[in-house]
């Protein structure tokens, strides 16, 4: 079972939440994401995609802080989703040394730069804010291990597509995982940029 091969802290937290069995999507996706491959993860709403992202991200970072630059970046549509995801991650990280940071347009960019400089492990942001931080040298990609996009359908509807490409061009090497309900043509185009050799998990 996928949960049995996760970091001990994650397994303990799942037990405390009385989550004893993975969803069908998690059975298929967790081992592939853990392998380090680039992955398109597609499944209907409430299949466990966001929880899968949290579990595999924490496992990748070994549930402990390291260095100062982000080792995981998660992009979402807007401030509301940033804060929702921050809270979801915090439930799993509050008894670890991992440092979360919520980044969004409404927070002054200079404040974000100074706070990120203090040390962050998991950076949750929107494409436009993340791109702005990078262009202003407000965030380093040097230690990045995993780059995820949650509920990626928003990239089909708005202008987040170009900032994502801009950010990816600045990353030398990391794992990319995209979560969505379907693989739209706009998302498929990422294969020509940073999702090369990607695997596809669907439910």
What's the overall geometry?
globular
Number of strands: 7
How many helices in DSSP terms? 9
Q: What oligomeric state do the depicted chains represent?
A: single chain
Strand order of the largest sheet: 3-4-2-5-6-1-7
- Helix and strand element order: HHEHEHEHEHEHHEHE
> Kindly state the mean pLDDT as a whole number?
89
Structural Rg: 16 Å
Distance between the termini: 17 Å
Largest sheet: 7 strands, parallel
Strand percentage lies at 5-15%
Helical residues, percent: 40-55%
Coarse structural class:
alpha/beta
| Unreliably modeled segments | none
Describe this structure in words.
This protein has helices spanning 8-16, 24-34, 49-60, 79-93, 109-117, 127-135, 154-157, 161-169, 185-188, and strands at 39-42, 72-75, 100-102, 122-125, 146-149, 175-180, 199-202. It has 203 residues and is α/β, with parallel strands linked by helices. The longest helix is centred in the middle third of the chain and has 15 residues, at 79-93.
